Amino acid sequence: MALERTFSIIKPDATKRDLTGKIVAKFEEAGLRVVASKRIHLTKAQAGEFYAVHKERPFYDELCEFMASAPIVAQVLEGENAIAKNREVMGATNPADAAPGTIRAEFAESVGENSVHGSDAPETAAVEIAYFFSGLELVG
Ligand code: GDP
Fold this sequence. Notes:
- This protein is of the alpha+beta class and 140 residues long.
- The chain has helices spanning 12-16, 20-29, 44-50, 60-67, 82-90, 103-107, 122-132, and strands spanning 3-10, 33-40, 72-80, 116-118.
């Protein structure tokens, strides 16, 4: 299995409740190394660009408002099979469906305010990493 990188966001509902450390611990316990990290406060326009793929969805405006409502922690995670591994550690989008022990089962508040984002494919991971980080900021 090849070493892979994925993009992660610890979302506003989680940063507001000081869950950053607990969430990063879940990544690290799963063998995902944090190779880049920054805490930033997105504007609604920046959140909208990041989630442009969801523009036509009924919850798009609510999602952008939420993502700009408090700081986020943007990270690049590296490990074997990192994209799938991270999605496994995150759990299902709706916390009601998330497997026990996953981040969303333990911490998410609702289907919208669900504590974490993780890339769903290598192509999206590459685009999302480049949206938030320069090559100089990926430090291994
Ligand atoms: P993910 O890949 O598991 O994050 O799920 P999606 O790509 O389907 O959705 C992206 C994000 O949009 C989710 O993580 C939620 O924050 C938000 N979202 C998805 N479905 C809903 C919904 O029905 N209502 C609201 N308010 N937000 C949603």
